[in-house]
Design goal:
By secondary structure, the protein is an alpha+beta fold. The chain contains 5 helices and 5 strands, in the order H-E-E-H-H-H-H-E-E-E. The chain has helices at 2-32, 51-57, 61-65, 73-78, 81-88; strands at residues 38-40, 46-49, 93-102, 108-119, 124-131. Strand 3 (93-102) and strand 4 (108-119) form a beta hairpin.
């Protein structure tokens, strides 16, 4: 009985160490990725943004965390909200580029779209925004990212 308990403790420790190593690798990959990534909770609130996202939108971490994708009037006005809602229902969705205001002085619109994916085990949603063209007139028709 004692030996079984010791084996169980050793297995739990090994599992815990493997999970910690995996989480560390994921955090490094997330933060150092050249792809802009934003992670949401099920209610649309931003939980994390990486350095590429902060650079793309020219916002601080705090400003990014204050953003709720399901309450954004600009995304609603662009027509992208229907697709985003489907993503939050669990579908893998690619949102085509739409003109989106970025936090610049003077204000500037960029064509931004992205891929929404869900992590079912944690019920978190991730968006990988892509920028089509930094400077494009609002009258231009977008193409796929």
């Amino acid at each position: 009985m004692r030996r079984v308990r010791e084996q169980s403790i050793l297995q739990n420790k090994a599992t815990s160490e493997a999970a910690h190593a995996s989480e560390t690798r994921w955090k490094l990959l997330f933060e150092q990725s050249p792809l802009s990534v934003q992670i949401f909770s099920p209610d649309g609130q931003t939980k994390r943004v990486n350095a590429a996202w902060r650079n793309l939108f020219r916002l601080t971490e705090e400003q990014g965390l204050a953003f709720n994708v399901l309450k954004d009037p600009d995304l609603n006005a662009s027509g992208a909200m229907n697709l985003i809602c489907l993503a939050f229902e669990g579908q893998a969705i690619n949102v085509p580029p739409v003109p989106y205001p970025v936090n610049n002085d003077p204000p500037e619109h960029r064509w931004i779209g992205g891929a929404f994916r869900t992590s079912g085990s944690r019920r978190r949603y991730a968006m990988i925004p892509c920028i089509e063209h930094e400077r494009r007139t609002l009258a231009s028709a977008p193409t796929a990212c």
